[in-house]
Amino acid sequence: MKKIYLILMLLVLLPSFSFGYLEDKLSCALNNKDITVSLNKTAGSSCKAYIAYIEQTMRQTARDLFTIQEYVTQGHDTDYRQQVKKDKLALIDKFQGVRLNIIASMKTFEDNLLKKSLDYFILKVTPYKIQLTRSLFKLSVLTGGIPPDVKKYQTLLSGEVETIDKIGKAKSFEELIPLLSGYIYFKQEISWKSE
After folding, report:
1. How would you class 21 by CB atoms within 10 Å of its CB: exposed for 0-12, middle for 13-18, buried for 19 or more?
2. What percent of the chain has a predicted confidence (pLDDT) above 90?
3. In whole numbers, what is the pLDDT of the chain averaged over residues?
4. Which of 8, 101, 125, 131 yields a CA-CA distance of 20 to 30 A from 79?
């Protein structure tokens, strides 16, 4: 009986699984034990919808367990109901396994997408970063009074280089998106100042 109460409490308090930036945009296709996650909406159903359905089914199964336990306690067809109870507990375990596999697959997909995006970005932006670093070096060797416009330009260049470095070290899309906005801002400001 305590196990049933524990299961119901876990299901009622089932934590929402917010782990990433793309979780609302991911689609899942489930085939036996394989889970395919993609950004393609036509490749499956929403991963969040799958998880919501599984959680709803788990809650209903837990309610069924309480009903079964009441019958067992009252002594109604105890042997049959004990087997049904055991089957329901196994079903909850199976649903929880599928739920956790979907969440893990989503996390893996997002982590891989982040890594590949960062690798591609760094590959494409490296020549630009080298150009910025050279310009910064040239400005740093200037002696004497540096005009305020040149100082602002120097600040923009170093801000852009720092932003590129931070982008390369981003650990999540939540961290990456604002950095990309900063990168675009600095790039626009630098292009306007150099005209």
Report:
1. middle
2. 38
3. 83
4. 8
Question: Which pair of structure tokens corresponds to residue 82?
Answer: 């004990």
Q: Which is more confidently placed, 116 or 145? A: 116
Contacts of the segment 126-134: beta carbons below 8 A, 24+ positions apart: 128/164, 129/161, 129/164, 132/157, 132/160, 132/161, 132/164, 132/190, 133/161
**CA–CA distance, 108 with 161 (Å, rounded to integer):** 29
**Please, are residues 55 and 141 in contact by the beta-carbon 8 Å criterion?**
no
State the average pLDDT over residues 71-92: 86
Going through the chain in order, the beta strands assigned E by DSSP cover 27-31, 34-38, 45-46
Side-chain-side CA neighbours of 31 within 13 Å: the count stands at 6
Q: Provide the 10 A C-beta neighbour count for residue 70.
A: 11
